[in-house]
Amino acid sequence: MSDNQNLLAEQRRALILDEVRRRGGVRVNELTRRLNVSDMTVRRDLDALARQGVVEKVHGGAVPVAEARTHEPGFEAKSALEPGAKEDIARVAAAMAAPGSAIALSGGTTTYAVARWLLDVPDLTVVTNSVRVADVFHSAPAPEPGGGPRPGAATVVLTGGVRTPSDALVGPVADQAIGMLHFDVLFLGVHGVSVEAGLSTPNLAEAETNRRLIRSARRVVVVADHTKWGKVALSSFARLEEVDTLVTDAGVSEGVRAAMAEHLPGLVVAGREAGLAGAAGPADERRRDGA
Questions:
Q1: Which residues form the HTH deoR-type domain (predicted)?
Q2: Structure pTM?
C-alpha cells in the first residue's frame, strides 16, 4: 500500500478492499500506519465499505463478506457500487466502438454506463439482452427542432428472454436470437474475474447466453471494475484467453494487473493514475475472423 495521505476516499477504500481480500482481513491500526491517515478516517472507510456490502466489520478491523456463489444482486443495488470507476471504464471502452459498426452489450451496470457513452457514436446497430441498456438508447434526448437527427441515433435490437434480477434477458429465446447475429464488438459485463475460473456469473442461464454473445462477436471487450477481481461465481462461461481486451479501473492492484496481463491480449486500466498493460488498439486488435 502507498503511504499517501492525499489519496481520494474512493482510491483509499479500493486499496483497503484489495488488502482485505488479499489477506483475508485487516486491522485498523495496520491500515492507519500503511495509509498514513487517522484512526477515524480508516473507521469511516470501513463503515462505507460495510454499507456497500463488500466487507464485514469485526472488532478492531474488517474481513471479507462471504458471498454465496449463487447470489445475484439486483440492478439498483449494483448501481450504487463504484460509480466513479464504472464511468472511467465506460468512457474508455466506448471509444472502441467505430461509427457504423454492429455492437452488442450484455446486461450489467457497467455496460449500462458504456451505453450512455455510446449515444454520440453515429449509426450504430446495437444488440442487447439488457432492458436497461435498451432504455438508454430509446430514452435518449430528442434533437433540437430543425437540428436534424441525433448524431448517435442507433438501431437497437432487444433479444427477448427471461429477466434476471439484474434486468438481463437470458434463456433459449435470447440464445436463439443471438446465435443468428454477428457483432463487430461485444461489451461484456461480468460478476467475477479470476485467473483460475475466468469469467463467471451466479446465473446458469446467463452463463449460456454470455457464451452465445462471445461466439457471435469478432472482438470481445470485458468491462469490470476492481471489485470483480478474484470473485468466482457459480458458473464459468469463458477463459481469460477468450477475451480480446479487458477494461478495468485504477483501483486494481499492480499485482493483479501483472497476473492478468499474462493471460489477456489486452488489459487497459482507466482513470486517474491508471497504468496500461498490453492495450489493444485498432491497429493490433485480435480479430476472430482471422483477418
A1: 9-64
A2: 0.69
